[in-house]
Amino acid sequence: MSALAWVKAAHIAASALLAGAFAFQILVLRRIAPPAGSAALALRVRGQLRALAISGVVAGAVSWLAWLGLLAISMSGRPAAEALTPSVLGTVVAQTTFGHVWSLRATLWLAIAVLLLWPAGKQGGGSPPRHWITAGLALLVVCSLGWAGHAVGTQPLHALVDAVHLLAASVWLGMLPPLWLVIRRACKSAEPASADLAAAAARLFSLPGMVAVGVLALTGLGNALWLLDTPRDLVATKYGLVLLAKLSAFGLMLLLAASNRLLLAPAAQSAASQAARLQALRRLQASVLLEVALGALVLVLVGILGVTAPGTHGAGAHHMHDMRDM
């Protein structure tokens, strides 16, 4: 696996973590009526979400810089010492399609970092307008990834479909770590308020998760139609084989998600005693952690797909265009 594939996987994961922290707060946490006397608990959870978002920004910025450096080495055909210079890097940024996208996304990352690191208000969550602006920028960061991959070499509509695909993936995968942290806190503290919050979060996670999965399936089919000449490419090309591995991991995630929605989350919600609820939450915690691990595997495979030619006529067009520009 190439260094560029690892960097792409890390960058997509960082983008998903950032978007997922905001999605979890908006789609899950804000819909939970806080239990009596649990203001401190809600504040701690919001603090964890903010820490996850900041971690995503740091990892995203570092991996985005590394992505630029590795492409500069690849496009120039020079050793790292000669490629990682202001002249070569400036040429990549100013005269290539990727460079234009890189500049846009670098601006978005910087704006998000400023908004997140600006001193928060007394409630620890920042002002509502700032929160919504930051959330919107996080979504733009994810969607703009659609213009940094294979889709750029096909049709504008494909780039749009790929952006929606990335957004749905980021909402689903990015909300899993916050959900796991909320459940883990409930299992460790054994406080009734924490258990109530975790059970409610698991229940409310299901609907946006299902919507995201549906969008993922539809847009994934569209991506395949654009990037694969025939169904035989799934077994006759390296890209197709990696895609099959990704689909297999995705299928296992679906099985876990279905188990969580139909069995484990309802059991935690309807438990007759605190002990039974904690037992159900511990099983749910293990299942969500396994889902996170499979999601990480999916992102690694996405990184490999990003550096593997699909074999369609225009799949690598944007990279060739970038080479001519240099």
How does this model look, in words?
With 326 residues, this protein is mainly alpha-helical. It has one domain (3-325). 81% of the residues lie in helices and 0% in strands. The chain is built from twelve helices and no strands. It has helices at 3-27, 39-76, 80-83, 86-95, 97-117, 128-143, 156-189, 192-227, 233-236, 238-270, 274-306, 317-325. It is globular and about 65 Å long. Residues 313-326 have low confidence and may be disordered.
| Domains, number | 1
What oligomeric state do these chains adopt?
Answer: single chain
Rg measurement, Å: 21 Å
Structural classification: mainly alpha
Helix-strand sequence: HHHHHHHHHHHH
Could you tell me how far the N terminus lies from the C terminus, measured between alpha carbons in angstroms? 26 Å
Helix content class: over 70%
The helix tally amounts to 12
Got a strand count?
0
- Spatial shape: globular
Mean pLDDT: 86
* Unreliable stretches: 313-326
Portion in beta strands: under 5%
Biggest pleated-sheet summary? none
Briefly characterize the structure:
Helices cover 81% and strands 0% of the residues. With 326 residues, the protein is mainly alpha-helical.
Write the layout of secondary structure elements.
Blueprint: H1 3-27, H2 39-76, H3 80-83, H4 86-95, H5 97-117, H6 128-143, H7 156-189, H8 192-227, H9 233-236, H10 238-270, H11 274-306, H12 317-325
Can you give keywords for this protein?
single chain; 326 residues; mainly alpha; 81% helix
